[in-house]
Model the fold of this input.
Amino acid sequence: MDSGAVILDLNQLRRSCASCALHELCLPAGIYGDDLRQLDAAIRDKRTLERGATLYRDGDAFRALYVVRSGSLKTFLQNEAGDLQILAFHLPGEILGFDALASNQHVSQAEALEHSSICELPYARLMQVSNEVPALHRQLMRVISREMVAEHRHLVMMGRQPAQERLAIFLQNLVDRYAHLSRDDISLTLSMSRYDIANYLGLVVETVSRLFTRMQETGVLEVNRKSVRILRPDLLAELCSTQHPVPMKRHDHD
Amino acid sequence: MDSGAVILDLNQLRRSCASCALHELCLPAGIYGDDLRQLDAAIRDKRTLERGATLYRDGDAFRALYVVRSGSLKTFLQNEAGDLQILAFHLPGEILGFDALASNQHVSQAEALEHSSICELPYARLMQVSNEVPALHRQLMRVISREMVAEHRHLVMMGRQPAQERLAIFLQNLVDRYAHLSRDDISLTLSMSRYDIANYLGLVVETVSRLFTRMQETGVLEVNRKSVRILRPDLLAELCSTQHPVPMKRHDHD
DNA sequence: ACCGGCAGTTGACCTCGGTCAATTGAATGC
DNA sequence: GCATTCAATTGACCGAGGTCAACTGCCGGT
Done:
């Protein structure tokens, strides 16, 4: 690598990864000292996106991975017919863009749900640094793998859970992820619309609306537009797993 | 790396990756010559599994990735209640086990659907080789990414498609993957049970059965137990996308 | 401060696919 | 070769959640 990139002044360092409040969550977890410094050098740009702005779209050439610094985004797939399926919501500290590694172009679209700021990790630079810092490669794969595991959970929800469980799991998941960001763990501000939530859960907006109403009526939570306050975290947790009246087991056939 | 592993005799080489009929599909795509030789050395074991045998289960320590040489496997998630969701079917040339990278232990279960043979890629060895052969790291990430993309398609199916489309997409997908393995492209032997198919698609077995019957009645295919012959690939392709009577578009809200 | 538009809610109705139950038939064991 | 078993099919019924439509109330713009 060119030595110019490795030698950093304190100023640059302060503005970027090493001082990022989220650096534990983002890539360099497990990477310290000089390695971190190198990684830091690979992060070229910080961008901000307005609500509704597109970070990348289906077909775009793959240049970089992106870390959410603040705000939130959704990624989704859209077919020819215009049908769309939201794949994930991305909160601060999380990384987007892995789906483009396979074909060198993005196969999904990423859009900001609110005013957000993003770190760009140019992939070519990332690979250069990785060659010097083997730990980075492994860390990258760990992060991709974590994303796969999250998608597995999403899949189970879609395949097996009834509507109310889906919403409960969704909310619980948001609570967990925001708690991780050391926020108040019982109140949420939903940056996504009811349409987005419904779509993500494989439901329609009316169903989501009714479920919010029902959960409010049963005292689980208090909801007012985008703000949700969990009143009974215990009840919410219960709702996350189907309480089969008859404990109907799913087969375990060959 | 220890030099003993790099020096291979022709015999060993012939038995393994370099001569594997599927080597284009599996890991070393884009890796040649000495690099391939090194990779080959990292592949320790070939195992065979009987139908129903478990390759790894939830909680197992992560030691290796696995390549299917012949036969087929399913991977699935199973929760405390015994509910289970099949995540994927794995055909020859495909790689399993990436979900374990995140936590260093498997978080799903893999089971053979029929007599199968498997290449084991010990992860530690793989990482050693990768440090010498940067291309391998990138290729590995490409493969994980490809798997993620496939899972996205699965997700869309679960979230948006009605039952018949799901089965059509499933069959089309199998046809494509087997065509890739240069088999007869209009007849399939389903190694998985109807229960497995139903589960994978988020349906119940009765629905799958009815759909097979209907597709047979409409002349799309001929089905007899595990064997399926696609009579009208064109019709099958049509069934893969919902033909909205009214071309109802899914919203594209903020 | 009023208006327009769209996010969100609510209600009435209907449909797709799930549930339950009976039957068929292919494989495996004695 | 017959019985047992379980995968698969078929039919009758039902209900969770989708569809359609009407309404409410925020929010943003001028």
In short: Chain B touches chain A through 61 residues (CB under 8 Å).
